[in-house]
Amino acid sequence: MIKKFIRRILGRKEKLDNGTDPLILGPKEHGIDPQLVSPNAVRVTQTLQDAGFKAFLVGGAVRDLLLGIKPKDFDIATNATPEQVKRLFRRAFIIGRRFQIVHVMFGQDLLEVTTFRGASSEGAIKDEHGRVLRDNTFGEQHEDAIRRDFTINAMYYDPATQSVLDYHGGMADIRNKKLRVIGVPEARYREDPVRLLRVVRFAAKLDFTIDSATRAPISVMAPLINNVPAARVFDEMLKLLMSGHALACLHQLRKEGLHHGLLPLLDVVLEQPLGEKFVRLALASTDARIQQGKPVSPGFLFASLLWHQVVEKWNAYQAAGEYPIPALHLAADDVLSSQTEKLALQRKIASDMRDIWAMQPRFERRTGKSPYKLLENMRLRAGYDFLLLRCASGEIDSELGEWWTAFIDADATGREALIASKPKSGSTSGSAKKRSRGRGGRGRAKEPVVNEGGE
Ligand code: ATP
Ligand code: MG
Most C-beta atoms within 10 A of its C-beta, which of 27, 35, 315, 389? Predict the structure, then answer.
């Protein structure tokens, strides 16, 4: 009774701060366009609600809807247990060990349904640095909200009533373009250091400023990322690189002191003057493709990021007397093994990278049957796009890229003529010697595109 009275006189502000009662916003206040919500996501919330459960869209989807962006996927939160969810849908699968979630499928469309998580991580099993290892309790909706990382990621949207539930002032932060951790930032980073990388990704992707308390501990706590399993760091890095704002993300990582000595890949990418232009072109092209809704392949992306490290070693092996092709394979082995230790490059990605690299010297053989053989290669498109990047960055003579563009487009007679026409310069391998001739980047090879061979 007294509580109710106090709440009434303190009004909405108090409700907001206690984190238990949400601010409830109607369509006029939040302005979400229902057309941007996937019909399948509505089917899931509707089915759960019809069965008597609570069900909301949550997380990134709500954040994006509030920003007027069409979400790329929809997560749903409910008070139904995974078993109860599974029973309501024909194609539903319980997955996950650390925390069970349900994948509900409609055709190709996948929706992730999560049961509200319990509030406290205090009782959870942690490692010696305070990182939460296992925590499997279910809880109330307000407890689920407090467990989420940022205020803007902790809002719930009910498509049926078109209301948004805001537990931590996310709406105000969206309006002010502020990224703010829920709770005490130091403690939240300690529980899960991946959040350090998430701050950077969201700030760069959304063009939000990082709240000062959220930002202050980042560089000091950066070494905690070393303690996170490589596969998780890799997943987060992939999200970062495929966010459509990879370049901005990498700059922000450097600004926050998160790149140094943490992820060997980033050290390489951000601190090598040699390949800077190449990496910049590769990332700009990836960003453009993602922003146009086109697929990109992680193999191509990582092959680009690490190419100049490969080139350096390739040259060293050749200088030590190896033939070019075995030298390239040795260089690829070295680079892949030093990266996989820390980054857990998946085998499929690593083998795609190797294919793309291995194809490069083969583009230089423009006589006899060799070019025709290369045309049949399954990965030709990726290898060719990669070749164009090398031309555009000035690493090799753009004549080679132009020749291949013409060869791929030509008919049988055209191809014969191209083979018969003597290439201007013989070989154009990526060696330092060739580069120092200074022919870099004058030609007009087609703009490189990151290959579409989606995974
Ligand atoms: P994106 O647009 O990149 O998918 P997202 O916010 O949906 O962004 P996800 O990784 O898909 O990011 O996570 C979904 C939601 O789960 C987040 O919005 C957040 O509420 C919660 N979440 C994810 N990772 C964490 C984490 N490490 N700590 C706390 N909450 C998290
Ligand atoms: Mg998401």
Answer: 389
Choose which residue among 70, 72, 75, 192 to substitute to test ligand 1 binding: the one with the highest number of ligand atoms within 8 A of its C-beta.
75
Please give the Cα distance from 199 to 203 (Å, whole number): 6
How confident is the model at residue 424, as a pLDDT? 52
Q: Is the CB of 60 under 6 A from ligand 1?
A: yes
Using a 10 angstrom Cβ sphere, with 0-12 exposed, 13-18 middle and 19 or more buried, the burial of residue 326 is exposed
Q: 183 in ligand 1 pocket by Cβ < 6 Å? A: no
Is any atom of ligand 1 closer than 6 Å to the C-beta of 239?
A: yes
Which amino acid belongs to residue 378? M
Common-topology check for domains 2-176 and 263-455: no
Q: Taking residues 332-349, what's their average pLDDT?
A: 82
User: Span 96-119, mean pLDDT?
Assistant: 90
pTM of the entire predicted model: 0.81
CATH H superfamily, domain 2-176: Beta Polymerase, domain 2 (3.30.460.10)
Q: Catalytic one among 64, 144, 149, 166?
A: 149
Region 98-114: mean pLDDT is 92
On the question of pLDDT at 131 being above 70, the answer is yes
Q: Which of 384, 303, 360, 379 is nearest to 336 (CA)?
A: 303
For the cut 60, the answer to whether the pLDDT of residue 15 exceeds it is: no
Kindly report the average pLDDT of the chain as a whole number. Answer: 86
Q: Would you say residue 436 has pLDDT above 90?
A: no
Q: Please report, for the chain, the start and end positions of each structural domain, with discontinuous segments joined by +.
A: 2-176, 189-257, 263-455
- Provide the angle, in degrees to the nearest 10, between the axes of the packed helices 412-420 and 398-409: 150
Indicate if 75 belongs to the active site.
yes
| CA separation for the pair 103, 91 (Å, rounded) | 8
Distance 75 CA to ligand 2 centre (A): 7
pLDDT tens, position by position, 165-193:
999 999 999 999 999 999 999 999 999 99
Q: Whose CA is nearest to atom 26 of ligand 1?
A: 149
- Domain 263-455, CATH homologous superfamily name and number: cca-adding enzyme, domain 2 (1.10.3090.10)
> Does the structure show a pLDDT above 50 at 14?
no
